[in-house]
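Our preliminary data section would be incomplete without showing what the modeling component actually yields. Below, a chain of 81 amino acids is followed by its predicted structure, encoded as tokens that our downstream tools consume directly.
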Amino acid sequence: MLSNGKLAEGQRALAVYADECDLKTNPDHWHYKRRYFGGDDGIVFIDAESLEAMLSTNPEATYLRAEFATETMQLSVITRS
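Predicted structure:
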């Protein structure tokens, strides 16, 4: 996940990876990503206001869960200890 918002000069965007696709923790990240999301980078725009509204319903949430089907994506917030 990466914001497309304008950054201040000299700032770098924060990239957030799915647990299974984190290059630092999963040596097989590329194959996993390709299997479940395809070979290209894939871009899905998520409206920030909608995301903030969803996050506000569960302030204790620690994870954003994204589930992909052939033509849809479903987002939810979950709490893991």
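The mean pLDDT is 84. Residues 1-43 form one domain. Preliminary results of this kind motivate Aim 1 of the renewal.
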